[in-house]
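User: Okay, second chain of the day. Same drill as before: sequence in, structure tokens out.
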Amino acid sequence: MASSRFTPPPASAPSIGARTPPIPPPSLITRGQRFLEENWVPVLIGCGVLAAGGAYLYTRQNDSSGPSTGLEEKKDRKGKTKKKKHSGQGRPLGEGSDGPILEELPRDLNESSPDDPTPEKLGTVGNEEDEGSKKGQSHLNDVPDTEGIAAMSESERNALGVTLKDRGNKLYSKKEFHRAVECYTKAIEVSVKKDSVFYSNRAACYTNFAPPEYEHCVSDCDAALDLDRTYVKALKRRATALENLGRDEEAIRDFTATTIIERFQDEQAAASVERCLRKLAQKKAKEMLEGYPQVREPKLPSPTFISSYLSAFRPHDKPTLPENPSEGDHALLLAFDALSASDYNHAVSYTNGAIDQGVSWKEGQAEAYNLRGTFKFLIGDSIGAKADLEKSLDLVPSFVQSWVKIASVHMELGDAASAFGDFEAAIRHNEDDPDIYYHRGQVYFIMQEFDKAIADYKKSTALDGNFIFTHVQLAVAHYKQGNVASSMAAFRRILK
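Assistant: Same drill. Structure tokens below.
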């Protein structure tokens, strides 16, 4: 590599440092959940937390000793909110051995149902169950049979469902979780009106089984959220269950939705997002850094992972063939066609074939080495990726995308000074390329230099306002900086 190509880093290279708005309307929340469900992988890649080794090594140094301690909220008889701390790792957000408070959703004023009990009132509800127990009656013995239920009016069935739910709450408070499940199940069966609370409270019981039945918890939370998309308790409960099942990607979706719905006031949900991100980043990066050298042939990551990484760059036009293209030239075009079709295995084969057979023009050769270097980076071969990207820049020094990609390689190799020098070189060649500022902002973000990250995100957005991930990162950076109002405003702009 020609030494003249690389420039020294900027004088102020960053050092690694430490790191009531109105309730969002249901329409905003729904769009937010839908956006997260459809775009969580690109968002994570865009956030830079899955950028393989660099993120893995950085987060491993900053990893906490374990999940954060859960907090539970409860109300006393005067309606004042208190917070009680619970210890215990592995069950964040109040899902400890004592279980969460069973939330009750407000009902219609004209509905003929008993007052929803707070935890302190549970002892005064369902006295008939206590009396029945004294006579040896089971907690369900006084429930009518199928014919009796069929003969009841709709309002009577709904009232019976509420009574059974209240009885389940009382059993839950006694830690009789299996019997509580039976009450909630019967409440679901008899009630004509579907109530999300029945499902969410039953889900809470499943998390307290020994061992916990997280799959059943997820299913019940799904049902609760089908009935009420903004039911925060069900979202938290499902997120915790998903995390315990090792489904970190889905847990991140729910924890992030909770953070938005709670107006960024739920510090524990935000901490849960970061915890899951760290675990996911470490898992993905460990596969790339440690797993691949153990096999004979390196394997590409999943197509979703590759697509998400590539989507962090703006669309790149397919090169135009010269008048008399060679076999290598045709192979290069086939590589781009395979890339467009997300057929990454063939894209790798065609790229290797193009380089082996020889690409006839300089710009095409630079494209081929850029592409092969990209795939080497994705399989964890940072040294090989660096060599190919250097060849690409030797051929076409103004190839901005190769500068940006080699900056990522240098970051993964722990050479931040060279990485920032690469970004400066890219700016000298094309100061109006928005990708430069977006990816440099990602580096600042990972290094927790949020002021500089925000400045770069804004610069990137000013150059191209249609790139969704820059807006997402700008919102997240504002939040990390403590500017909740700006973060919420940015999220609203995203979801319009």
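Residues 1-26, 40-100, 104-137 have pLDDT under 50 and may be disordered.

User: Thanks, on to the next one.
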